[in-house]
Amino acid sequence: MSTEALFSPTRIGAIDVRNRIAMAPLTRSRAGMDGVQTPLAADYYGQRASAGLIIAEATNISRQGRGYAYTPGLYTDAHVDAWAPVTAAVHAAGGRIVVQLWHVGRMSHTSLQEGGAAPVAPSAIQAGGNVFTEAGNVPPSMPRALTTEEIAGILEDYRQAARRAKDAGFDGVEVHAANGYLLEQFLRDSTNFRDDQYGGSIENRARFPLEVVEAVAGVWGADRVGLRLSPLSTAIGDTPLDSTPMETHGYLARRLGEMGLAYLHVVEGQLHAGNGAELLDVQALREAFGGAYIANNGYDRARALSATASGHADMIAFGKPFIGNPDLVERLRLETPLFEAPAATFFGGGAEGYTEFARI
Ligand SMILES: Cc1cc2nc3c(=O)[nH]c(=O)nc-3n(C[C@H](O)[C@H](O)[C@H](O)COP(=O)(O)O)c2cc1C
User: Which superkingdom (predicted)?
Assistant: First the structure.
């Protein structure tokens, strides 16, 4: 099979990328409890800069938006100062890097919130699953429903985080609207029972995600803003699916396309359950959006070659393979076996399982 497409450059919105291989956002939980990245992060991302595009790990837009211990933030000047060497390291190696903007909504725990407050959500419905605290994995706390007025404040937090991402030297931002977090909680009718302008119809449930994109695009220009969706995943928070996933996500994709967003990034199928592109009418979503499409979830070399050659996707985002293979692009090019990083060091700790993987 031709390997040309996967290794050829392209343009994603206003961002020139040197190949079609993206590094998927990967939470590694190695920042301080104050959300400040350590110098190791610059080594880690710099080592992976041969990716066409790095989507840096989910990064909290506010203290309230935090649901996991040791995750980084972009809501203080110290956060900006700690991210700046990361973007510099990636740029020095010729790479491109955007940051994933994150508010976890109900996927949080009182011990991670200011003054032990309840996490916030569109509606007071408790999530399943676990979140990671200083005391280990615990079930998420019961959230409280946001008031309509509070939503404007969170919008402002997104805007500020987008500004700080610019100050830190990123090439753009990815709005995290996937994996059971705040924006997906607004989008799905399984987690949004609101009766104001942010709940009910598809248009209303998509309103807040679209307002966030508009706010962030106001800082960056829409052609440097992407958005991640996971229409068919229940994995995080045991979040039930929307009752009409194609209609809901199709509407959102169309509106994002009208705004001229840089890319749509989709976790195809159930997160971590292998690729599920066939479960979703990806082409209908792409058509509704009309811009660049980044596909993710369980891609290997053969599938990535075929998906880029056939035009299924403009880029393929690899998650787990990038953890143990800093030179993943070269390994894919040469068809070298991949190293499988141990899951025990995915979250937390220091250099081990983070920056100490061999290159070929
Ligand atoms: C350790 C780890 C951390 C992750 N952190 C994030 C994250 O911060 N944001 C996100 O959208 N997805 C996150 N994911 C999901 C990945 O981006 C990706 O969707 C998933 O691993 C499937 O892709 P893969 O089969 O190539 O690994 C994470 C996955 C793993 C394994």
Answer: Bacteria
User: Would you say the CB of residue 59 lies under 6 angstroms from ligand 1?
Assistant: no
CA of 250 to the centre of ligand 1 (A): 23
Catalytic residue selected from 44, 181, 251, 263: 181
The CATH number assigned to the domain holding 182 equals: 3.20.20.70
pLDDT tens profile 285-299: 999 999 999 999 999
**d(Cα 303, Cα 183) in Å, to the nearest integer?**
29
Task: Let me know if residue 357 belongs to a domain.
Answer: no
Residue 360 lies in a domain: no
Task: State pLDDT tens for residues 325-342.
Answer: 999 999 999 999 999 999
Which residue, by CA, sits nearest to atom 22 of ligand 1?
A: 297
Q: Which atom of ligand 1 is closest in space to residue 71's alpha carbon?
A: 8
Q: How would you classify the pairing of strands 136-138 and 131-133?
A: antiparallel
**Model confidence, pTM:** 0.98
**How many domains is the chain partitioned into structurally?**
1
DSSP β-bridge partners for residue 180: none
Catalytic site includes residue 44:
no
